[in-house]
Amino acid sequence: MSESLQYLLNPLQYEYMLRAIWVSALVGGVCGFLSSFVTLKGWSLMGDALSHAVVPGVVIAYLLGLPFALGAFVAAILATGAMAFIRAQSRIREDATIGIVFTSFFALGLVLITAFPAGLDLKVILYGNILGIAAGDVMQVVVIAVVVLCLLGLKWRDLMLYCFDANQARALGIKPMVLHMILLGSLAAVSVAALQAVGAILVLAMLVTPGATAYLLTDRFGKMIWISSGLGIVTSMLGSYASYFLNGATGGCIVSLQALVFLGVFVLAPKHGLLASRRARLKEEIVVKEGVS
User: What's the confidence (pLDDT) of residue 230?
Assistant: First the structure.
């Protein structure tokens, strides 16, 4: 075996790297799947809000010995209820309401973490620690991934209709509130899973970037889901693998790679890319000039 090949295979000799790679791939795939709905629904800011708002729920669940996902879900419900109450009882715009609530919840989480220094590590919450993930946390990520994928897989058509037009979904006998809760709960649960990989700061990127990239590549939602999930899996695997050689934060490597892929697609996408849009405008201008002449 050549030295260069041996060098490239070095990360695969360590159990912690193999575990980090496949767990990151699992998280990336689930985030990519959910990202399609987040992009379609226009919930990017909501995803950012929940990824930060779940922090106090995670901390409290840890202190009480409860599953992280349960604490995250309760925190997400409370945050959403607070947003809805403030929006209904005041003239404050929705974006400002979301900003106030999620920063308040996030600040509460930071206070709880620093108040109990023997508990959760602040850096783990903010930046993730996929290389040092414990066996119990791995199982939690697997359970969250399976449950979320099953829910989204069974309800993806209804969710697609709800994201396109909630009123049309209601007219067809579909209950938008149930679908809203499914999306909300999935966002909260996946945020907890992604905390292990990239931390609270970068969760939003994994929940938005794959879906936004896929949105530029296809006009069919079913195909968009597959592309988004595939991008999430591949970029998470490669980002984790590259972090070994770069000696950089795994979450930062994953999100940076996703950003590079998005930039490439943004410029080069065959139909909705920047170059394609410019070519289409030039053709329209030429047709208009020819018509005038």
Answer: 95
> pTM of this prediction?
0.85
pLDDT for the residue numbered 291: 66
> DSSP per residue over the chain, as a string?
--HHHHHHHGGGGSHHHHHHHHHHHHHHHHHHHHHHHHHHHT-HHHHHHHHHHHHHHHHHHHHHT--HHHHHHHHHHHHHHHHHHHHHHSS--HHHHHHHHHHHHHHHHHHHHHH-TTSS-HHHHHH--GGG--HHHHHHHHHHHHHHHHHHHHHHHHHHHHHH-HHHHHHTT--HHHHHHHHHHHHHHHHHHHHHHHHHHHHHHHHHHHHHHHHTT-S-HHHHHHHHHHHHHHHHHHHHHHHHHHT--HHHHHHHHHHHHHHHHHHH-TTTSHHHHHHHHHHHHHHHHHHH-
Measured distance CA(57)–CA(73) in Å, rounded:
8
Question: Is residue 118 predicted with pLDDT exceeding 60?
Answer: no
User: The domain containing residue 127 runs over which residues?
Assistant: 3-292
**Max CA distance (Å), the chain:** 78
The CATH code of the domain that includes 237 is 1.10.3470.10
**C-beta separation of 34 from 176 below 8 A:** no
Distance between CA 206 and CA 255 in Å, rounded? 7
pLDDT digits 0-9 by tens, 243-283: 889 888 888 889 999 999 999 999 999 888 888 888 888 88
CB 72 within 8 Å of CB 61: yes
Taking residues 20-36, what's their average pLDDT?
Answer: 91
As given in the structure block, the two tokens for residue 41 are 């629904």
Query: How many domains are there within the chain?
Result: 1
Reported as half-sphere exposure (CB side, CA atoms, 13 A), residue 29 has a value of 19
Report the C-alpha gap between 84 and 137 in whole angstroms: 32
